[in-house]
Amino acid sequence: MERRKSSESLQVPNEATPAVLVEHLTKVFQPSLSRQKVPAVVDLSFRVGQGEVYGLIGPNGSGKSTTMKVILGLVQATSGRTEVFGIDSGKVGSRRDVGFLPENPYFYKHMTGRETLEFYGKLCGIHGAQLRERVPELLALVGLESAAGRPIAGYSKGMLQRIGLAQAIVHRPRLVVLDEPTAGVDPRGSRHIRDLILQMKAEGTSVILSSHLLEQVQEVCDRAGIIYKGRMVLEGRLEDLTQLQQQMEYVVEGGPPELAAEIQTLVERAGAKLVSAGHPRTTLEKLFLESTEDKEPATGGTRHD
Amino acid sequence: MTETHANAGTAPAHVVPVWEVSPIRLWVLARATFVQLVRMKVFYFLLIFVALVLVVAAAGLFWLPTEHLIAIKRWSFGAMYLFTMVYSISATALLLPRDLEDRTLYTILSKPVPRIEYLIGRLCGVLLLNAVALAAMFLAMCLLVAWKMPAVEQQLVQQLLHGAAGEAVSLNEVNQAKAEAARYGLSTSLLWAVWALYLKASVVSAVTLFISTIASSSLFTIVSSAMVVFIGHFHQLILDFWKVNETGWFGGLIGRLLVIVFPNLSLFDVVDEVITGTSLSFGAGLQLTGMGLFYVALFVLVAQLVFVDKEL
Amino acid sequence: MKWHWRELLRGPAAVALVLLAGGLARAPFESKLLVDLRKAGFHPPLHGSSALQEVGVQGMMGALGGLRYMVSTFLTLRANFHWEFQDWDKVLEHFQLVQLLEPRNPEAWITGAWHCHSNAWAWYLHDDPKHSETTRRLLAREWVERGKVMLRQGIEWNPDDPWIYRDLANVYRERDRDLCQAAEYYRLASLTPGAPDFLHRIYGYLLAQCGEHDEDAMKVLRGIYDEGLAVLRRQRVLIWKPSLIVEMRKLEERLNVPMEQRIPERFDPEGFAIATPLLPEESLPVYERLLEKSRNSEVPDPALPGIVAQVRARIGEKSGGS
To answer: Could you tell me if B139 and B132 are in contact, meaning their C-beta atoms sit under 8 angstroms apart?
Structure first.
């Protein structure tokens, strides 16, 4: 089959092309009947590499969802550039390889779980045998085989979230955008979703994830960005972010080996045991709270002001 | 051991050139809309319709035999009109706001679905519902008219024999009486009438779709669409009013603007004459179709102009 | 920033622009379509008695949209309800509303007028318990006039419908005994497109009976007779009615038509044999009534006994055969 020549089709992404590129993104809302402009996102920049899991964290109203909507083309940027696999996210073509799970999703209540997946599959251009194969596979993956024939109207919140995740990946996208995927889901369901994200990561899918469950972000994400009042205040690799380099304790440089032995002796004399020594770490939660207070955080990683 | 893959596999869907408007996706959206509306139990109305028309058909309320046929057709068409107008407005007004509220719109539009496709797909679903409902009601009406026809013919011939002329009749006159009865019976013009009704409902759906892209609530959409339908029946009146009253250039300008911007829905009101035996030519029917399609296209276009930039 | 022509096609201004352009583009097509539809009998221009009335009718139609026929049927049923209680004012009022809703429906005028010139008329004349005989006669007359006014208005809206003319003619014939006026309205009825033949024939009879237009009447009846003769010769089917012969003979007497120019005394009974198979059961009582009339009249129709015999034979054949 001859391929159509078009600016979109010719943009074949390679490994160097980031899954998502956000550069100087600004989004200002102007509510109707109001002159006051509301900036939701200000000069935001980040990139998500292929196969990378990126956590977008921030308090409510910080601009996470708006950023995701711009990436998905649901909202237009006021200024700046957003690309998905090298294609402007305003173009329909950019969504060919994207799956999205919105926060607290609802689906057509009249459809069953199976019909929902078939509906979204067909929208993505999957038909026939391919779809018949894919739908049970997804239902098994999210553990909804037994509820597949029931109307969505009777689904619990956790089930909705899982069917939402299944529809997001129905067409095997290379990027999955998850907005609060575990919001309102019980710990078991939450763990299931986390496992699915880890599975996607293992298969090389890029994931953008926003969550309030920072522990979960810490568990699954390679990198994370903290947004506050529409700005990126902190961004970097999780390892780096959680490493408190300026508050190193028990770190002695150039000290004689006797010193270490002496410390160990002191510990043993007190009837205790020295398990490890090295760089101490903070928790992501602590980091998050510190970052979103109106004061200068003092941590490693890249600063964005 | 079989392994389930979350997201791995061959032949990714994105190789399909999806930036073009895809008839398959339109059908998927239209079908989903149709099923959604059907599962809202809209077709219960059809049972009410059949009951109503049966009552009209069975009741001996009418003096003249032809009036009986006319009554069956009038009540049928009246019920069809009511159904199509109410559903065209309320169902269309419901779709977009509900999708937005339930975030279903996010999941649909985050797939490679152009917004125009979403709009047309949803509209087609409503049009499909109207088509099925109208076809069913029309069929029920035709069966009733066909059932009543021999009795009416007989009555007319009797009238001719014993009443009007007061004397014997020729075969020619009996045939004339039968032709007279046939004029009130089933004809191809009735098909045009139901088609014109369908076109009108389609235009109203397209207008409602356009308004729902601007409106912030279903209620506003319903009220505004009802207003458009109302004004849409007053084109001639608006023009005549300014002619009669000579309100000056400003009044004339406003009148003309109204006539230009609002669809002329009374144009599609051919049912009245068709019921009483006037026939609509193929050419005029085609022109009506063209006008209906033009209106639908126009309002889908302006709906897209608004929707394409809508912040979701 | 790079500007693109598509920027023009955005926002409320673009919507207004497209709607205006669309409206202007469709205007000529819409006008042409309206002209075509009007030619075919749809959306006829209104010609009420005043501009205000036109606006009123249009307003009412517009307001009810496609539901006006349901409303008008409902009003007709309500009118019938009032009829049961002889509340004639209410009947009239309801029919006037029905006529406002569907002025182009002849039945609305015919039925409304029928209630006036026949039902209300008869009730006032015979059943009204409240008034004296003189007042009742006056009121009855008044309702006949109301019926006539309604029929004339109906004709204004429906100039091509034969039945409103016919009903008005019958009111002149039966209520006013004005056969010449009745003949005139039958003539108008017979001129409408697709009018049945008998309207022309009755026009001829009434013209003959009104006494003022014997020569014109003779011309009309002779025309019908000649046409029938041609059919008889060609198809062996007799389409004359006995009344035609009766009326023509009366006219021939009055006009002193020379004997050789008069219609023959007897005509071919074979013709009837061909004409009568048509609906013999339904025809028999009619022919019997005519035979009875003919026997009592000054000029009995010699052919009628033969016709009745033929029809009876046909019925016998049918029942015997089945």
So the answer is: no
Tens-digit pLDDT profile for residues A189-236 = 788 888 888 988 898 899 999 887 777 788 889 899 999 888 988 888
Please report, to the nearest 10 degrees, the dihedral formed by the alpha carbons of residues C68, C69, C71, C76 taken in order: 140
Q: Is C312 among the domain residues?
A: yes
B58 residue type, one letter = A
Chain B nearest CA to A235, separation (Å): 26
**Would you call B276 and C104 a contact, using CB atoms and an 8 Å cutoff?**
yes
The H-or-E segment that residue A100 falls in is strand A98-101
Contact B167 C286 (CB under 8 A): yes
* Residue to test with chain C: of B157, B236, B241, most C Cβ within 10 A: B236
Distance from CA of B199 to the nearest CA of A (A): 28
Cβ neighbours for C148, distance < 8 A, ≥ 6 positions apart: C113, C117, C168, C171
Q: What is the ipTM of this complex?
A: 0.79
Query: Is residue C320 assigned to a domain?
Result: yes
Question: C37 and B284 in contact (C-beta within 8 Å)?
Answer: yes
pLDDT tens for residues C200-244? 889 999 999 988 889 899 999 988 888 777 666 655 555 666 778
Contacts with B42 from chain A: Cβ below 8 Å: none
pLDDT per position as a tens digit, B197-249 = 999 999 999 999 999 998 878 888 999 998 898 888 877 777 766 665 666 67
Rounded to the nearest 5°, which phi and psi values hold at A228? Answer: -140, 130
Give residues 200 to 259 of A whose Cβ lies within 8 Å of B: 200, 203-205
Q: Print the domain residue range for C285.
A: 271-322
Contact A75 B312 (CB under 8 A): yes
pLDDT value at residue C269: 44
What count of residues does chain B have? 312
The two three-digit tokens of residue B34, written as one number: 């149709």
**Number of neighbours of residue C230 by Cβ within 10 angstroms:** 11
**Helix ranges, A124-256 (H):** 128-141, 157-168, 187-202, 214-220, 238-241
**Signed CA dihedral, C210, C216, C222, C228: sign only:** negative
**C40 touching B (Cβ < 8 Å):** yes
Q: Which CATH architecture has domain A20-242?
A: 3-Layer(aba) Sandwich (3.40)
Average pLDDT, chain C: 79
How far off is chain A from B31, nearest CA to CA, in Å? Answer: 10
Domain-by-domain residue ranges, chain A?
A: 20-242
Q: How far is A36 from chain B (nearest CA, A)?
A: 17
Report residue C236 as tokens.
């062996």
pLDDT of residue B62: 58
Low-confidence stretches of chain B (pLDDT < 50) are: 1-5, 7-19, 163-168
| CB spacing of A123 vs B5 below 8 angstroms | no
In a domain, residue C177? The reply is: no
- Bridge partners for A223 per DSSP: A54, A237
